[in-house]
Amino acid sequence: MTPPAPAVAQDLPVTVSFTRRADPGHAREMTAWIRAGLSMAEGFPGFLGGGWVRPRGESDEWHMLCRFADQRSLAAWDSSPERQWWLRSAQGLAEVTRTERRTGIEGWFDAPVEAQVTSPSPRTAPPRWKQAVTIWLVFFPMNLLATVTLGRLMGEVPVVVRVLVLTLTLTPIMTYLLLPWMTARLDWWLHGRRFRDRR
After folding, report:
1. How far, in Å, are 17, 31, 117, 189, 199 from residue 20 at the CA level?
2. Do the Cβ atoms of 50 and 65 come closer than 8 Å?
3. Are residues 15 and 91 in the same domain?
4. Sheet containing 47-53: order of strands
5. Are residues 18 and 103 in the same domain?
6. What pLDDT is attached to residue 184?
7. Is residue 122 a part of any domain in this protein?
8. What is the mean pLDDT of each run of 10 residues along the chain (199 residues)?
9. Cα 66 from Cα 68, distance rounded (Å)
10. Which of 55, 57, 75 is nearest to 66 (CA)?
């Protein structure tokens, strides 16, 4: 008798990462479109948060993240008429280049569970020590900055409350913005490619 499959994929929070390509000259339109999509997603049960990263310089790629409590709430949003309308409103403005679904912090380093663009061969997760270094590269400067700013302002606050405020502030910033940004910058190193071969 085959044991039941663990309910990991269905029960864990899931983060969807979107990459869109758009003309850099349409930055204002893209900003408005992404903000409208996030505002719309906020009204769906199970939505835990989201964010977006603008391209640097003349880059034409935009990165957007949405996190849901589980696969069920993600599916409800994914198939909703509101989201279909929102996607149609970007026709002629943005081109879909990649969509990935990931669970947990380690999921940022794993091969995507589902992607609209497939690579010639599936990638394996990088070594754990590289994952740890990448997380530290994000956590250390962010924690240092928060300690000398918020931590100093809250010097008289009890340590438990101070740590609570700091972690509540830093965790979503790290999870939704800085860690995805850093893993994208270090993708070549995480997966054993040369710097000159990075994409």
Report:
1. 10, 12, 12, 23, 16
2. yes
3. yes
4. 47-53, 61-68, 14-22, 94-103
5. yes
6. 80
7. no
8. 44 80 83 87 88 73 85 89 88 78 57 40 66 88 88 84 84 80 83 68
9. 7
10. 75
Q: Is residue 143 classed exposed, middle or buried when 0-12, 13-18 and 19+ CB atoms within 10 A define those classes?
A: middle
- Domain boundaries, position 163: 128-197
- One DSSP character per residue, 61-103 reads EEEEEEEESSHHHHHHHHT-HHHHHHHHTTTTTEEEEEEEEEE
Residue 85 shares a structural domain with residue 135 = no
Task: Give yes or no for a contact between 15 and 64, defined as CB atoms under 8 angstroms apart.
Answer: no
Give the pLDDT score at 146.
Answer: 87
Residue 118 inside a domain? The answer is no
Of 55, 75, 108, the domain-final residue: 108
Give the span between the Cα atoms of 23 and 95, in whole angstroms: 10
The per-residue pLDDT for 11 is: 66
> What are the Cα distances from residue 64, in Å, to 138, 140, 148?
19, 24, 30
Q: With respect to residue 4, please indicate whether it lies within any of the assigned structural domains.
A: no
**Backbone torsions φ then ψ of 158, nearest 5 degrees:** -55, 145
How many domains does the chain fold into?
2
